[in-house]
Every structure is written in C-alpha cells, then in structure tokens.
Amino acid sequence: MLKDLFRKKRKYATIPSTQAKKEVPEGIMEKCPQCGTIIISKELEKNLKICKSCQYHFRMSAPERVESLIDQGTFIKFNTELQTEDPLEFPDYLQKIAGDRKKTGLNEAIVTGEGRLGGYPLILGVMDARFRMGSMGSVVGEMIARAAKQALEKKYPFVLFSASGGARMQEGVFSLMQMAKTSTVLERLNQERILFISVLTHPTTGGVSASFSSLGDINLAEPGALIGFAGRRVIEQTVRQKLPDDFQTAEFLLKHGQLDQVVPRHELRDRLLQLLEFHAYRGNED
Ligand SMILES: [Zn+2]
Question: Matching NCBIfam families, A to Z (predicted)?
C-alpha cells in the first residue's frame, strides 16, 4: 500500500522508558519523585540532595544535615544516652524503636548538640524523619528542652530543623505534653533575648508544627516543604470546601504570613550565617 512507502522502518528495538526507569539499582541510583530523572546517589549527595534537573529537595538525614552546616570537627552531640520507654505498653513499640535505632544509628528521632557555623557558636537540633517518621515522643521533647536550656546557659543562638509527622501516637498524652514543655522553654529563651531560628523541612506536620517549629523568632522553610497541622482531607471534610492545590506548602505559608522566608538548601548555610552574624553579641568593642 502507498502509506507503507512512507513508514519509517526502525533499525533497532526500543525499550519502553517506563520499564527502564523501574530498574534503578538500589543504593547506587535514585529517581527524582518530581521529574523522574535518574541520579547517581553520590552525585545527589554532593549536590546537597537536590535534583539538578528540577531542584526537588530530597530528604536529608540528621547526620547529613549537621555535616552540611557545621564547621568540621566542632559538633558535640548532647544526650545520646536518653532512651525511649513504653509508658502505655503499646504493642511492638519498643521493637520498632530498636529497629529504627539500628537502621539510623541514632538514639531517637532528633540529633542535638553544639558546634560552630562559620565560626559562630550555636546550639543545633535536627529531626530525622527516618526514625518513626520523625514523630515527637518524650525523648524528642526532652532533648529539645535540654538543648534549649544549653542555649540559655551559654547564651548561644538555638537553631532547630523540623522534619516530623507530629506527636507520637504510641506515647499518647505523653507526646502531647512535649508541645507544652518545648514551648515553655522557648519562652524562656525569648525572655532572655536569645535568638531562636526554626527551619521547617519536608514534612513538618501535627503537634510539631503546632508547637516549637512555629515559635521561631525567625521561621524559615525549604522549598516545597509540606507544612501543616491536620491533613488536607480532614480539613476539606470539616470546612466542606475544596482547598487550593498549593495549600500547606512552604510557598503558600510564606504568601500568607506564616513564614519569614523560603530558602533553597544551597543558600541555607549562608542565610543562617548571615542571621547569626546579624544577631551576634559583640560585647564592648571599645
Ligand atoms: Zn527532579
């Protein structure tokens, strides 16, 4: 037939791209959830876990975050001896904690300590979403409160990175009490005029967004981070309205006055340094 004359013959067989993309060797390559680009894991780590094609910010673990910010060799961890208990005798809770400890090498869903950033001393806390989804139990709350007390005693600024699913279900009301405990100690920092910077990363939700992570003198967030209290579906059912597509993103919250700035990860260290410099107490320099 005539149309066959114009049909190009393929010389090679092609592999459907969806099939090719499925076969990503684990640990060596990672696929960007936003644009689908396959990235070599080591390249991704070098680029602070940001996709070079679309700037998607992959999650960072607490140790990776500390390394990306703190002057080498200056970080001293606090309270790694604190152990989670099982106050409600929740089924399998302690086994799950043991599993997460093994997987992450952390004692709980947060790392706290003191160190220096560009030479400026600070107290730093970084939540880790790999550990029980970064949920806040008694130990997480206690470690934040103790870190804040160190900031009070030493008069160092306190910088806290959130990444959390909220209060920890398995500790019930003990988890909820951490909201009050952390908020109280942060109020003491406020009274003593000690700088507290909160950095909200993906995701920061539930009781964490409703307590310490929204209480910064300065509240920063990473691009695209999900930040909110209740889930979209629950709110839509309650208010019986369709919510905007960008609802509960860092950009949406910035637009509505809930955040001070959305800072891409590449600029975050410099921005923190700038803020520390700006607020540093220089004593009598005469
Ligand atoms: Zn991407």
Answer: accD (TIGR00515)
